[in-house]
């Protein structure tokens, strides 16, 4: 059993409510993949159910993978996972994680 369109829409809508400017998700092999735009930055995202089907997870990558596909995003080393048993909670945690990514990346930029 994989994540369905209805579940993906719940996640997408909640992300938009919490400050995401745009989010595009499409069904691929065993997950949803797409892009999320926040604070004028675009990240790759994947949304899936865990193997026990008792939890959901998202992975946000701040460096593009070679292809926009479940496996490439899953194994991309430049990203963060978020886990929850509730889709709305997962969306809130995902937006918080994106905010942390932005904060950490901006703190490590050296201007010349």
A few lines on this structure:
The chain is α+β, with helices and mostly antiparallel strands and 112 residues long. The protein is 36% helix and 30% strand. It has a 5-stranded antiparallel beta sheet with strand order 1-2-3-4-5.
Overview of this protein structure:
The protein is α+β, with helices and mostly antiparallel strands and 112 residues long. It is built from three helices and five strands. Strands 1-2-3-4-5 form a five-stranded antiparallel beta sheet. Helix 1 (5-17) packs across helix 3 (87-107). The protein is globular. The mean pLDDT is 90.
H/E element order: HEEEEHEH
**Number of beta-strand segments:** 5
Q: Runs with pLDDT <50, length 5+?
A: none
Structural class: alpha+beta
Kindly report the average pLDDT value.
Answer: 90
Largest sheet: 5 strands, antiparallel
- If helices are DSSP runs of H or I spanning 4 or more residues, what is the number of helices? 3
Determine Rg (CA atoms, Å).
14 Å
Quaternary structure: single chain
What is the overall silhouette? globular
- In angstroms, what separates the terminal alpha carbons? 51 Å
Strand % is 25-35%
| Spatial order of strands in the largest sheet | 1-2-3-4-5
Helical residue percent band: 25-40%
């Amino acid at each position: 059993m994989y994540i369905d369109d209805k579940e993906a829409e719940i996640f997408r809508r909640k992300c938009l409510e919490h400050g995401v400017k745009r989010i595009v998700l499409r069904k691929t092999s065993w997950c949803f993949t797409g892009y999320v735009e926040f604070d004028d930055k675009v990240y790759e995202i994947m949304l899936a159910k865990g193997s026990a089907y008792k939890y959901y997870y998202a992975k946000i990558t701040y460096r593009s993978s070679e292809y926009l596909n479940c496996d490439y995003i899953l194994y991309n080393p430049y990203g963060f996972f978020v886990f929850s048993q509730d889709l709305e909670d997962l969306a809130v945690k995902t937006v918080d994680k994106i905010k942390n990514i932005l904060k950490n990346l901006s703190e490590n930029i050296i201007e010349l």
